[in-house]
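[job 0412] stage=fold_complex status=start
inputs:
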Amino acid sequence: MEQTDAELIAAARQGDPASFEPLVKKYQGRIFATARRYARRESEVEDIVQEVFIKAFQKLDGFRGEAPFEHWLMRLAVRTCYDFLRGHQRNRETAFTELTEPESDWLDRFVVEPDHASENADAARELVEKVLTRLSPPARLVITLLEIEEKSVKEIAVLTGWSVALVKVRAFRARAEMKKILTLMTKDKYM
Amino acid sequence: MNVNELQAKLIAAARKHPPGEQVPYAFEKRIMSHLSGRPVPDIWALWCRPLWQAALSCIAITVVCGFWAYSSRPTTDNSDNFSQDFEAAVFAPMSEHIEDSW
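[job 0412] stage=fold_complex status=done
writing structure:
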């Protein structure tokens, strides 16, 4: 019979690290998806996921079991991703390069016929990735959680450990920051 | 160009392309090898190390204080003078009183 999360956690706490493996297997996909929102290179993603699970194992005593293990793990993952963004802040200045031809074409199409610029296009995806890379770490985290993952302010507060008021302030600033980047990006060409 | 509309469009594009949940082959083994390779913290060792450091610090302070007390000792032995001076200072009012009464 398959053991529950609580049983596996209890066994791992009692000094059996092997009990942690089924938990890693069960949740690693979700943690990979979360890490891929913040890191581009696959090696960086793997490092983040590894750090999340090592931290989870070390802090297992701090898991009180009031919420599901997955929620606790996701909090840890989001905070680790935020630390990663803060640690790689310097890269965001250099990562912003000129628009590629498909990105430029997509923008042209958007200017002429905004409704016909496909959201499914690879260029749109590349463009949004480029904009997100330029954002400051708190702005990127808030935009990703609030706008892209469509989480509520309360959920973000729980995930990040920030107060609800702080999330609101950072969301306001993040939107303004994103607009500023988009204006800068399109200024030369269309304004 | 409407920047608000562009922002909404790009966010919609990001929503439509959620990152995948694919995991490299045997990634859990990599995690487990890291966890099993980590030494289990020995609580006694964790306690003993700072206690030893504290004890050594105390011994060092005691030796320094002892040496300082020994070296700052007066070189000439004037303990007799000191006792006489002390006695004279203590009994001075009394001896004045006795002299007056005579």
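[job 0412] summary: Chain B has a mean pLDDT of 82.
[job 0412] exit 0
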